[in-house]
Design brief:
mainly alpha, globular, 8 helices
Amino acid sequence: MTAADKRIEDLLARWQASLDLHARYVQLDDAAYARAESWPRHQRPTAWVVDLARKRLLELRDQLGRRQAAGDAAFAEALELMSFLTSLLGSEHIERFIPTATGTPVDPGISATVQQPRVRAAKPRPPQKARATTSRPVARTAAPTAPVSAPTAAPDAGAQQVISDAVRMLGWGREWPALAGLIARMADRPGETDVWKILRTHRAEILARAGRPTT
């Protein structure tokens, strides 16, 4: 077995595990599905789409096995090349795909991206006390403002798309150093420098969702 055969087999095995989870998730209602995992922004796949993907995946695994038995080492390399070109040339800004499922429940502090974001109601300001007026003008100085540490903001739609792209490419066998260049070339994505900033900020989440070691 060549190194390309092993990488393709590992990739197809991850896809199979993901689709097996999706076959269970189709039974959930929308709210439960949104809480099942930390999803990228996407349209929820229907049961027949998941079933079709499973059938085609089984066919591809069968073809790979037959080519390996025949000693065809070029078949796995061709599959790798096609997955690379698909991510580089064929991918568009779409939300209709089956995201990789890992079986890891969503972090309660992260809002699911398959639902519309909720807008927090602004906290009412306390009423200001009326100041006593005097006949003499009083010089007023602004009170010093204590520095307030800003809370970590949830990823916006653009960052979520980059995170989703990175998880998908790692699932295809791409390596971390190549991600920024590949994603930046895709339609409607930030420049490579901004992509790198997003990847570094969310590295742990991306690696966890892609089933890669975080060290």
